[in-house]
Amino acid sequence: xxxxxxxxxxxxxxxxxxxxxxxxxxxxxxxxxxxxxxxxxxxxxxxxxxxxxxxxxxxxxxxxxxxxxxxxxxxxxxxxxxxxxxxxxxxxxxxxxxxxxxxxxxxxxxxxxxxxxxxxxxxxxxxxxxxxxxxxxxxxxxxxxxxxxxxxxxxxxxxxxxxxxxxxxxxxxxxxxxxxxxxxxxxxxxxxxxxxxxxxxxxxxxxxxxxxxxxxxxxxxxxxxxxxxxxxxxxxxxxxxxxxxxxxxxxxxxxxxxxxxxxxxxxxxxxxxxxxxxxxxxxxxxxxxxxxxxxxxxxxxxxxxxxxxxxxxxxxxxxxxxxxxxxxxxxxxxxxxxxxxxxxxxxxxxxxxxxxxxxxxxxxxxxxxxxxxxxxxxxxxxxxxxxxxxxxxxxxxxxxxxxx
Length: 404
What we know:
There is one protein chain. The protein is of the alpha/beta class. It has 2 domains: about 150 residues, Alpha-Beta Complex (Aspartate Aminotransferase, domain 1); about 240 residues, 3-Layer(aba) Sandwich (Aspartate Aminotransferase, domain 2), CATH 3.40.640. Helix content is about 40%, strand content about 15%. The chain is built from 13 helices and 13 strands. The strands form 3 sheets. It has a 7-stranded mixed β-sheet. A 4-stranded antiparallel β-sheet has the order 9-10-13-12, covered by helices on one side. A two-stranded parallel sheet has the order 1-11. It is globular and about 65 Å long. The two termini are about 40 Å apart.
């Protein structure tokens, strides 16, 4: 079980008494992360690659950062980790780097239920004559069907782009099963894990993806992100750096202008934090144990809010109506009959509780479900530092808002 008092003490922003329920938009930052960023800037802010002592130290810290992040996601080697500013930027970089591998008539499958970061960037391939197919979702059940994916696959399918977890539905998609279907068809799989990584232990090897990305600013760190790829596939990508950064310079050929060293060093604080939650043994098992405890706690939070929503006859829950830890994260979207979502959010704001409304850059999904009117959907996105008491504060606030 999580020691919530100890957990919450690691996030200084929580001391102000505000209820942070917009975590899918950006989580709070660990104290350890902020301190490491500051310490790096004040003691190690020199360029890497030189022979003098401070540069050697900076180079060592960057290597340690990459290795630490590799352990966090269970990469097979540190140089499979590409560092960048955001998932959106890294996906666009990946699409640009992969573009020469496509020919006219090749097919790419994107979804209607992804964040735009893993849809829009791939459309640059239309310039090469690539044909796009869209994997949709049942608007009544909010479920994806793997048979629909199989039906979309063809001998010309070269790539499938899908999310690991929806930032609106909260659904955890079966990536390993999807990967098996994609690879059986001879295609590659690109996974956006932004809405998954804050809640579950990432295992890039076990999930079967070929490329996998997420942002640390939604995983308790700074505005920073990673793209993981299988080493042989990264080696095939076109360089995005200077002409002398040849294709064999993995991963730096995909980090134009160099990585942000201080943010990379700061992110080691995230890995050490989860290692500590899992017993501090310094191995992969500690991270897995930590996220097991996170999943158990978050399931309780999710069920508390969903139970309140289920008891009302004026609410439509957008996604699973229950919170099983194996298939849902506590990102919960809903619509209130006859009420504008933005109106409700403003009333909740007054109680110092942060929730949100809109489409959350999953516009295609919200429009597909017919939920764009009235300010879009309401979204409450919780993480492991949130408490049952905070959920109860929210439901009390919502009741007051609905009474007006």
